[in-house]
Amino acid sequence: MWRLYYVTLEQPYRILTDEAWYVTQAQRLFSPYPFTSLFDYSVPTAQHGPMLSLLVSPVAWLFPDATAGLRFLIPCFGIMTIVGFAVLGKQLISDRCGVVAACLAAMLPDFWIRDGLVVSESLSVALLVW
Question: How many whole angstroms separate alpha carbon 78 and alpha carbon 84?
Fold first, then answer.
């Protein structure tokens, strides 16, 4: 619940941030200019990896002006991370270790602070744990 509340507190993104790149690329995937520079459609770019843009692009296509809506997808990756730590701790050591690992993952600021932004860190950690 905290993760979803935190998303509502996040400020609008600035134009020269990673979040602006991921949101713009997700919106441009359904245009004639996918994976181009933020400011020049004629310049192809590989500034960031494409996976997050590809995953959020269906929502960007359905709701083209809803950047805040894209921010609500990212906590899902954070929740996957917490569940992944719980499963990993349970399989490696014990049920109690799984619960402790999940609690620590939920409380660590490095995990939940990224959930308010459309950036790839939450997805990367979730994929690493699983």
Answer: 10
